[in-house]
Amino acid sequence: MEKSSENYVPFIPRGNVGVMHGAFSWREVMLICNIAASYAEEGDFEQSIALLRKVGTYFDNMSLDSEERMVSEVLYLLTLSKTLGRQGSYDEALKTGAKGVEICLNTKSGKNLALLLYEMTKNLELKNEDEKICKVRLRQAFIAAKLNDDQKLMEHIKLHWEELYKTPFLL
Question: N or C: where does the chain have the smaller number of CB atoms within 10 Å of the terminal CB?
Fold first, then answer.
């Protein structure tokens, strides 16, 4: 039987998702973050942020292996920062992103550093922050993407720069 994409309805749980118990792998945290991102994509920022705050409570109350925690917590902070920014809570989004950047720098892990810096830049721009500050942060995001050989993000940052600032991107 052939499935039609027209009949496909993604499953997104509704209502109270409950309290989280036990230790989660980074993959499970990624799944929860993806569910929260789905809520945000539908415009349900309240449900998305509520779910992400439960993940935050989980990190506050769990003792985890440092590498597992770093990967999972940075992913959670990235998702929360992005969602808060989309909701218009720029100051809280910037604080959340800064916490993620701090973890990346303290653990010498650049996996999500470029994305965190890029999200922070977008929030600074939406807040109408000084253009010089925004450009510095965007260059930092580009350098972090370059160090991780993330060609797709590097191109995205260049395009963002050229569309917003109407000048060629230069380091």
Answer: N
For 38-56, b where at least 16 C-beta lie within 10 A, e where not — what string?
bbbeeebbebbbebbebbe
DSSP state of 4: P
Instruction: State whether residue 80 is helix, strand or coil.
Output: helix
Question: What's phi and psi for 148, nearest 5 deg?
Answer: -95, 5
| Among candidate residues 11, 18, 15, 62, the one with its CA nearest the CA of residue 34 | 11
Position 139 scores a pLDDT of 97
With a pLDDT cut of 70, the percent of the chain lying above it is 85
Q: CA torsion angle for 156, 146, 164, 75 (degrees, to 10)?
A: 70
Do the beta carbons of residue 93 and residue 56 sit within 8 Å? no
> Given the structure tokens 């973890």, which residue do they identify?
103
